[in-house]
Design brief:
Blueprint: H1 2-18, E1 23-31, H2 38-48, E2 58-64, E3 66-70, E4 76-79, E5 93-97, E6 102-109
Parallel strand pairs: 1-2
Antiparallel strand pairs: 1-6, 3-4, 3-5
Amino acid sequence: MHELALTRNLIEVCSQQAQGARILRVTVELGALTCVMPEALRFCFEACRVGTALAEAELEVIMMPGRARCRDCGAEVELDELLADCECGSVNLTEWRGGDALRIRSMEVA
């Protein structure tokens, strides 16, 4: 479960940035192509935040779609999963852009 390692890193980065302040809310952007399950990320966050500056923090996950270009028809395709296809029916996608990262968008501190 790579969500556990990601969550530990998330908590470490947020704690360092907060410089000892109590964190109330963390908002992350989760790309649809990361293969990270939002529910698993939330579960790990609940478990890992205990005893940290994020002990009372809320985690908000904003899903970010991926984008690619269809080689067959040239259309730009929004992707909600890795194995998506174009409206034309083609799976011949290229120029993958976005949707493959986990980013901290914001952090609310007390």
